[in-house]
Amino acid sequence: MSSKQPAINFGAGPGKIPNEVLRAAQEEFLSYQNMGFSVTELSHRSQAYAEINGNAESNLRKLLNVPVNYNILFVHGGGQGLFSAVAMNLLKPTGTADYAVAGIWSHIAATEAKKYGTINYVFPKPSSSGIIPDEASWSLNPDASYVYYCDNETIQGIEYPFVPDTKGVPLVVDMSSSIMTKKIDVSRFGVIIAAVQKNLGTAGLGIVIIREDLLGRAMDICPSILNFELLSNYASILNTPPVFAGYYYSRVYLFGKVLEWVKSHGGLEAMEEQSKRKSELLYTTIDGSSGFYQNSVPVRNRSKTNVPIRIKNGDEGLEEEFLREAEEKGMYQLKGHSLVGGIRVSLYNAVSYEDLLILIDFMKEFLKNHSETG
User: Fold this and answer.
1) pLDDT digits (tens, 9 = 90+) for 61-113
2) Are residues 259 and 280 located together in one domain of the fold?
3) Nearest partner of 116 among 100, 104, 99, judged by Cα
4) Which residues are tagged catalytic?
């Protein structure tokens, strides 16, 4: 890669962070707001951090139009920590929950929840990857404490085209990879969880949007650091973070910067329009390659943010060559997840349409050079 050519991160997570955000963070890393010390050194009890925390929460609430009867929490850890937290905070009323398992991340979440109660799978394992069974076929338990699903499965590249109707049972959704890519009606959900390292920041921070009536249900074994009611009572500042003081809060700082970037670039409507535009271009390129590039997910369930691709029915030699040549041209983290292989293109908000055009041009060139091989 030329030293002057910028690298493009198509990774599934950590995802690309907007260059404007990185530059702003770089400027304030050594001296936050001309205070003379780094944002990572801020006391979590300081007024400066209170403003970071408050602004991040306020911007998230405005961008997603979060109703007043929902609390926003910033939590330690990523998605897998939240899988446990959901179960320990919500299972208690009946000890049972419904899980819609359409991919690997919802499977991991259900496996974690089994440690704390009885889990009902609302549909059998799909016969082939990428299929989300029709909602009419789901077997929901009316006595479940909650119904859980993952809106976008990053490994298989599948996305729900609907919000499940749970007949009044609280609905919990993992939106780690789809949050801030489309408009949502928050009031349809009891709880929204998301790890921020896809569209909203760096790994190690999670967000929880929870309806107030669902607070106060935590199991006795739930650690304080994962107790949603305690976190709400302490405005997400329950404890001093590990490693070194302020590091966790610098993640909130960066998260807040990304939200400011979203606002300044047209808000959620612009992000949704751009997401559709990018994914449509990529799928059109795949489907128009006469089978050279392949995506096996049914069109109705195709993800707009994570697109798995196989080359010529999984020719691993060609796929390795594709990855090698892509890196030579400055395009990185295109390798598919180890469980499924192949190629994976992640189109998070910070990946611009222009970034994608560079990849599309390369895909067409690679097709031209290799379509007669094998």
Assistant:
1) 999 999 999 999 998 878 889 999 999 999 998 999 999 999 999 999 999 99
2) no
3) 99
4) 105, 174, 198
Kindly give, in sequence order, each residue whose CB lies less than 8 Å from that of residue 124, ignoring residues fewer than 6 positions away.
Answer: none
Reading phi first (left if > 0) and then psi (alpha if -120 to 50, else beta), residue 236 is in left
Beta bridge partners, 96, equal: 118
Please state, in angstroms and rounded to a whole number, the distance separating the CA atoms of residues 283 and 166: 32
Decide if 99 contacts 148 (C-beta within 8 A).
Answer: yes
Measured N-to-C along each axis, helices 267-287 and 353-370 cross at an angle, to the nearest 10 degrees, of 10
> With 90 as the cut, is the pLDDT of residue 159 above it?
yes
Bridge partners for 154 per DSSP? none
Which of 184, 202, 192, 158 minimizes the C-alpha distance to 268?
Answer: 184
Which domain covers residue 351, as residue numbers?
267-370
Q: Mean pLDDT over residues 320-334, rounded?
A: 98
How big is the CA angle at 298 (ends 127 and 361), to the nearest 5 degrees? 130
Pairing type for strands 205-211 and 70-76 reads antiparallel
Which of the four pLDDT bands, split at 50, 70 and 90, describes residue 127?
low
Total domains in the chain come to 2
What's the CA gap between 353 and 374, in Å, rounded?
Answer: 32
Judge whether 3 lies within some domain. no
Say if CB 307 and CB 282 are below 8 A apart: yes
Same domain, 230 and 357: no
Same domain, 253 and 316: no
User: What percent of the chain stands above pLDDT 70?
Assistant: 94
In this structure, are 249 and 274 located in the same domain? no
- Please indicate, yes or no, whether the overall pTM of this predicted structure exceeds 0.90: yes
Rounded Cα distance, 14 and 81, in Å = 16
Domain at 99, CATH number = 3.40.640.10
Q: What is the band of 245 on the pLDDT scale with cuts at 50, 70, 90? A: very low
